[in-house]
Design a protein that fits this description.
By secondary structure, this protein is an alpha/beta fold. Helix content is 45%, strand content 7%. It has 13 helices and four strands. The protein has a four-stranded parallel beta sheet with strand order 1-2-3-4, with helices on both faces. Strand 1, helix 2 and strand 2 form a beta-alpha-beta unit. It is globular and about 65 Å long.
Length: 333
């Protein structure tokens, strides 16, 4: 994330040098880019150029803003529960390795091969009515224990394989920052058997520290920050907003943050009027000092539907639960 934040700041300077000096600069990050934008904002949004900050405001949408060392733990949980149920990633005939690595360095696997393994166990490529009772039972176990819908199981296993391999082999010196020591899994037909049978891994403390330094926000953002996310986002869980809010509170910048929520189950894109609304509200906050509230954002949205179509689904009274209610706490060192 630090490298991506550096690239973003470098691009801003290139724009000023070769195009024009903007009157207003909003730093916007979506999904993983939300974490990048938060990192860039806390790193570079300091008073420069006669007291003017390089970024006037920050917009974070569907953002992974709980830091990698907290946001990705559930993907290890998915790997160990999936292996307990399916035992084909790796197969018994293949060399065993710590699932917390994703894949060992140098080991290759295609996404098509991984998809094939998942389908042979779970039947995700079938209509629900066409799955066997055993496939249905295994999918239900994953949905209940990991708290993700069947539609996102494949993508999260992909990340827990290829992304984890990239992290462990290229970023943390061959060690893994992910562990599940102390996790109590619940929601299966037999939690006692599940907890006794899943593989357990201890996170490497050095890898945890290195990964956290790169990905975890510190909340020290001195300009307005407005966020938006769907309450049923299956990729960047809504509970991450609670974590980010606590992070900014600890940093003493809670008054710079307003978080909004919509009745959406999408991750990559919500709706046209929703984005126009939050951008206009952030711009008004930055230029006029009018700080929005979740209620004022929700009230402002319908005016944009005539031009941008239906899509105002803001929930002004929504309060996200703690991330620990979605991703079980665990031993970290």
């Amino acid at each position: 994330m630090r490298a991506a934040a550096e690239d973003t700041e470098r691009l801003r300077k290139i724009f000023i040098e070769h195009v024009a000096k903007p009157k207003l600069t909003i730093l916007h990050g979506q999904s993983w880019g939300g974490g990048v934008a938060a990192k860039a904002a806390e790193t570079y949004t300091a008073a420069t150029n006669n007291g003017k900050a390089p970024y006037d405001g920050v917009l974070l949408t569907s953002g992974v803003i709980a830091g990698g060392s907290y946001s990705y733990d559930f993907r290890l949980d998915l790997r160990v529960v999936y292996q307990y149920l399916c035992n084909n990633h790796p197969r018994p005939t293949e060399a065993a390795y710590p699932l917390s690595l994703g894949l060992p360095a140098g080991v290759t696997m295609t996404s098509a091969d991984l998809t094939g393994r998942v389908n042979e166990c779970l039947g995700l490529n079938k209509a629900a009515a066409q799955r066997t009772p055993e496939e249905t039972r295994k999918i239900r176990t994953i949905e209940n224990v990991i708290k993700i819908p069947a539609s996102s199981i494949q993508s999260h296993i992909n990340w827990g394989t290829f992304h984890f391999q990239d992290i462990s082999s290229k970023r943390t010196g061959g060690a893994s920052p992910f562990g599940n020591i102390g996790v109590r899994y619940s929601g299966s037909d037999d939690d006692t058997a599940l907890n006794a049978g899943v593989l357990r891994y201890a996170a490497d403390p050095t890898a945890v520290a290195k990964f956290a330094a790169d990905t975890d926000p510190n909340g020290k953002i001195p300009v307005p920050v407005l966020t938006m996310r769907g309450t049923q986002d299956p990729t960047a869980f809504v509970e991450m907003a609670n974590f980010f809010g606590r992070t900014m509170t600890r940093a003493g910048t809670a008054d710079h943050l307003v978080q909004t929520f919509t009745n959406d189950s999408a991750h990559s894109y919500l709706s046209d009027p929703a984005y126009v609304t939050i951008m206009s509200q952030l711009t008004k906050w930055v230029t006029q000092g009018t700080k929005p509230t979740p209620a004022s954002v929700a009230a402002a949205c319908p005016a944009f539907e005539a031009e941008y179509g239906a899509g105002c689904r803001f929930l002004p009274d929504y309060v996200p639960a703690a991330l620990e209610t979605r991703i079980p706490p665990r031993q970290r060192n």
